[in-house]
Amino acid sequence: MSDTVAPAPRPSRLRLLEPVTFLWIALIAALLVLVAGPLLKMLVVSFEMQETGEFTFQNYLTAYGRQRYLDALRNSLLLGLLSAAISTIIAVPMAWAVSRTDMPGKGFTWAMVLAAFIMPPYLGAIGWILLAGPNSGWINQVWRALSGAEAPLVNVYTFTGMAFVIALHSFPLVFIFVKSALDLISSEMEDAANILGGGTWTTMRRVTLPLVWPSILGGFILIFLETIALFGTPAIIGIPARINVVTTQLWQFFEDPVRVEVAAAYAIPLLLITVGLIGVQRLLLARKGFVSQTGKGGERREVKLGPWRWVLFGWCVLVAMLAVVKPLAVLLQASFAKAWGRGFSLDNLTLRNYQFLLFEHDMAPHATWNTVWFSAASATIAVVLALLVAYIVVRRLMRFGEALGFLAMAPFVIPGIVMAIGFYAAYAGPPVSLYGSALLIILAFAARFLPIAYANSQAAIRAVHPEMEEAARILGSGRLHAIRRVTAPLLKTSLLGGWLVVFIVASRELSAAIFLVGPRTRTMSVLLYDLTEQGNFEVVSAFGGILLVITMAIVGIGMKLVGRDFMLRRE
Amino acid sequence: MPRLVLSGLTKAYGRLTVVDKVDLTLEEGEFVSLLGPSGCGKTTTLRMIAGFVDPTGGTIAVDGSALSAPGAVVPPERRGMSMIFQSYAIWPNMTVEENVAFGLKLRKLPREEVKRRVAEMLGVVKLDKLAHRYPAELSGGQQQRVALARAIVVKPSVLLLDEPLSNLDANLREEMRFEIRRLHDEFRITTVYVTHDQAEAMATSDRIAVMNAGRIEQVDAPHLLYTRPRTRFVAGFVGRTNLLEARIEGGILVLDGVSLGPAGQAGLRDGPALISLRPQAMTIHDAPPAGDGLTLEATITERTYLGESWDYVVRPNGTNLKLRAAAAPLDAHEVGRKVWLVIDPRQVAVVE
Amino acid sequence: MFLIDRRQLLALAAWSAASAKAWAQSPLTPAEQALYEAAKREGEVTWYSGQYSADASEAAGRAFNARYPGVRCNVVRSTSQVAFQRLSQDLRAGVAQCDIFSSTNGGHYIQLKRQNRLMQFRPASADGLLPILRQADPENYFQSSFLGIYLMAHNTRMVSEAEAPKSWTDILDPKWKDKLAVGHPGFSGAIGLWALQMRTMYGPDYLRRFERNKPQVGRSSIDPVTMMTAGERAVGVAVPSASTLFAMSRGNPLKLIYPTEGVIAALSPSAIPRNAPHPSAAKLFMEFTCGPALSIAVRELFNESIRPDVPPPEGSRPLDQVTMLAPSLEDAERGVPEVREQWREIFGV
């Protein structure tokens, strides 16, 4: 247009300002409180003298001044590597078989992975004590009876035993990662290798698996991080096995006098290791492309395995037996037994353990209620926060949106126990003095599981085309109004899925809770841990049974409302 | 002995027959396209040749030995073929060089020879400077060249291409058509090329097999396919055409009372016949043309300018026919004008 | 099965049925009455319980709730060291949550008293305690609430009575390798006392030699009872008599061993932190603890009575027939952390 037109007056500032800006500011504050605050406080405290608060390196000298403490660190790293390696070995063939082959029993395998996923690791540990105690474990008893041997077949109270038990409850993470990556590979990638002369195994080894290498690596790293942050299993199995790890050592720093400063100094290297691992991951994956770049997928074709499909199915059955069926069977038996050592007989049956917990125990019903409402509250906080942050990031509404996203994802790679110590250092004492309050635990859970909710929300928002909202806004609806009336209803189902997943993982969380609970805020996981101190496995198993029933009810609701695979989806 | 023979090849999924008794023979070094609309069974045929799909009937033989028959299928990796996929299926985790070397390494060739042949091949497809790049760092056309190099370097007995250019933009597609033909001229690999794009098939192929609803309708050289379509489907699918109800009367084609001269094909009986009249077979003139060609008086009823040509709809006077005719951009005629239409009788084909 | 004869059993049964009921329903003493009114206004009391087992603590809590309707007892049971750890975390965070602190490690009280963290209070009922327990602290910052007997026990199916170890030094014999189970001084206060006592009696080498036999290390002193019951280990070291007797009453093939040198006796007090959020209820709980109601409740689960007017539990050897070994509270305060650290160096955990 060549006509000259006088410039229109600028719209007044008020019209430019979206009221929603204040919400963004609140969000940043919330993320600072939940994620950045605890970590920074921990860093600061690690350089502070107890009581006086003077600057010092003494905490680091104390934390690393003893062979035993260094041994614990080394043990943790080895345990993490071993568990992650075992998990990978367990999960990758299963994921490949379920995703790309004609193996039978995929539904069964899927259900067993889900079951292993929802079983809290410390319950699995107790199950395996009952199964693989060197003298009393069922497996060893049967082995001795069958073979006449003196020596036990398996011993859970060993380093490998512990790594194995941890792996049996961590492998679903690798499975989920690898399977969802494999699902994205177009069959043409494999076809191309086949037609050039690669058989099924060559193709899997040289093409299919290398294509999902980032997922395998990602799963490996995640399990490594989960393992070094695990408290329950090392306390339950590691102490009798006489293996000290970082988490049990951190626990010792909380003995009187409570040395948060030393604990913080001791935990900082875990963060460095995390950063290092992520750097290594970047390095390994540099330049190369993986499944995300495969372009349009062609027709999906199941790899025909012939008789080998039964071998793979056998592997899945074996894993299911070890991870789910056997531990669950012995836990159930113990929970209904007068004395679990007396075995499966009618006169050993009793409801006494459940009755004790449900009607006589002072703390059990209270802890159950705590677990339910803490989990619900933290899931709600996490999902709401994640939704808003994801919205800003996906729609690119703010200049520093990416930083918000980074903060929301950060807890994903921070060992849970480090988060817990950060929360303790930042909020347990004055000025806020939240120690022993429900709020402290709810906030810690919300922060810890924010990434799950965030990833979920991000995927969900991406799926809603911005034009849907823009259509509402051009008709005069404000952005928040548009989100509430247009976007949110479209997201409902997937947000519910995210909420339920956070609820489930929060309901079994022990590592973060153990440092933060007070007498009135004990959760089921902490009470269960306290109950295991006496080795009273019948009552412990019964309590575990109650926890599993609650979890399964939630999973059932999720499957009904959200869809069968809401737990095992990776967003 | 022919290189590749498909005889009675059939694939059915339950009641649905997607490939129906296909017979096709390829001589060594021949380049044949399977051309047809989506869902015509061409890709399934190709995947049966590759061994990815088991036939429910018929056989596939290479150099006289059967590779596929119902219940007895040699797996793809033992067919000595190679294939280029719609998605290229370049492995993104390997460099260009590694991609190309893959098939050679599987053949357990000495390392030196692998290196030499890969380098040679990359030179041929002009990728020698990009040997150490990863696919994500390449353009679409370059990725396509990698796919070509990877497939050709193993010197396959048969090269299969499954819509290889459908993911490229128009300019690149044209360039790659010539590239594919050039490589074929250089290596003379027996090739089966699946496409729904007739221009692609025309540019690349020695012969084209037009497929429809699981069957081959016609196999012919590209220009014959165009000028002498044998079926209504082929006439309609290959190029634009006017399909007209005509009659043969004493060996003479008669359209709405107008004689079009003798029917070109032999063995046609008198009676009603369907004819295909290409828009390019007609020229439009402002004034009565000189010469004694077949000329009809007509009126322009519609016109559309397409850039490279005019697309006219004309009605020969005294008929109700609507003929599409093409004309060069400068041959502009107003709607409603009287014109003279000259028809080239050699380009009139009777179809089934 | 039981280590008592029929006559005793009948007598005790008669006692349990009649007297226990009578005691439980006995009217509140004036001291209790006075505190009860104030406690009702506070509504609840939180008890960090490290002395009695989970079952017995819960039983005591229920007895308290039954005796003083309107005041609820929150039982927070853990091992003593963990209870102390939680109390320390409270103090460090400046948060008051604990009304009554009960630990088997008497040293904790000396430390808390020195740090001026405890409230002075002497319940009227303390005058009725066993003579040895009557005056735990001359200044009444803490009161006796627990008498735990820690000894050895064995699984009779795995080790016959003749073969079983007789003294604390017997278990150092290499033939007990891989057959012993024990708690952890980092968790259990009683194990801390035991380890300290052993060090005092047999020198610092005792733990080292004990470690060579690779005992299975649990956390609570009660854990070895489970290990013996399960058949995982044959001999439990420094196990509480109460939990062992309780397991025996359920038909498990266990037998107590009274070491020739004597048993470890944890004569342990309870105290009210100075900043207790429910001070009246805490005082009421203290009256309850030193009074007969607690002893009646816990003796049902085979814990020692701490009052002469409540008989000892079934199957326990009368206290006047056993030698009781115990470090003084002052020794415990200093010695237990030392021996705990030593233990960790030796055992690695």
Can you give keywords for this protein?
heterotrimer, A: 571 residues, mainly alpha, MetI-like fold, 2 domains, 25 helices, globular, C: 349 residues, alpha/beta, D-Maltodextrin-Binding Protein, domain 2, ten-stranded mixed beta sheet, 12 helices, 10 strands, 16% strand
Helix-strand blueprint:
The complex is a heterotrimer of chains A (571), B (352) and C (349).
Chain A: H1 13-16, H2 20-45, H3 58-64, H4 67-100, H5 106-118, H6 121-132, H7 138-147, H8 159-184, H9 187-195, H10 200-211, H11 213-228, H12 232-241, H13 246-253, H14 260-285, H15 308-335, H16 352-360, H17 364-394, H18 401-409, H19 416-428, H20 438-448, H21 450-463, H22 466-474, H23 479-507, H24 524-532, H25 537-562
Helix pairs in contact in A: 2-17, 2-19, 3-14, 4-8, 4-11, 4-13, 4-15, 5-8, 5-15, 6-8, 6-12, 6-15, 8-11, 8-12, 9-10, 11-14, 13-14, 14-19, 15-25, 16-25, 17-18, 17-20, 17-21, 17-23, 19-20, 21-23, 22-23, 23-25, 24-25
Chain B: E1 4-13, E2 16-26, E3 31-35, H1 42-50, E4 57-62, E5 65-69, E6 72-73, E7 82-84, H2 96-106, H3 111-124, H4 140-152, E8 159-162, H5 170-187, E9 191-195, H6 198-204, E10 207-212, E11 215-220, H7 222-227, H8 232-237, E12 242-249, E13 252-255, E14 258-262, E15 271-277, E16 282-285, E17 294-305, E18 310-316, E19 323-327, E20 338-343, E21 348-351
Parallel strand pairs in B: 3-9, 3-10, 7-8, 8-9
Antiparallel strand pairs in B: 1-2, 1-4, 4-5, 5-6, 10-11, 12-13, 12-15, 13-14, 15-21, 16-20, 17-18, 17-20, 18-19
Helix pairs in contact in B: 2-3, 2-4, 3-4, 4-5
Chain C: H1 6-25, H2 30-42, E1 44-49, H3 54-67, E2 72-77, H4 80-93, E3 100-102, H5 107-114, E4 142-155, E5 180-182, H6 189-202, H7 205-212, E6 216-217, H8 223-230, E7 235-240, H9 241-249, E8 254-257, E9 263-271, H10 279-290, H11 292-299, E10 324-325, H12 329-347
Parallel strand pairs in C: 1-2, 1-3, 5-6, 5-7, 9-10
Antiparallel strand pairs in C: 3-9, 4-7, 4-8, 4-9
Helix pairs in contact in C: 2-10, 3-11, 5-12, 6-12
